[in-house]
Write a structure and sequence with these properties.
Elements (H helix, E strand, L loop, with lengths): L2 H23 L2 H20 L6 H4 L12
Helix pairs in contact: 1-2
Amino acid sequence: MDAFTAGLLQRIKATQTDLTRARESGDDFLVEVEQGELDDLHRLAAEHGVAVGPALATSSGADIHTAGV
C-alpha cells in the first residue's frame, strides 16, 4: 500500500471517529461538517481507485481494501 492510500484511509477512519463523536454529543453543525469531509474523502478515494471496504464505508472502520493500488 502506498503512502497516499494509507494516508487517505487513515483520514477516513479519523473522520468517521470525529463524526461519531459529533453525533453522540448532539452537535448538528459538527455532524454536517464531518459528514461533508467524509463524503469528500470517499469521492477522492473513488477518483484514485482506492476501494473503501464496507466497514469504512459504514463508519465502523474494520475492513480496508485497495483496488489497483
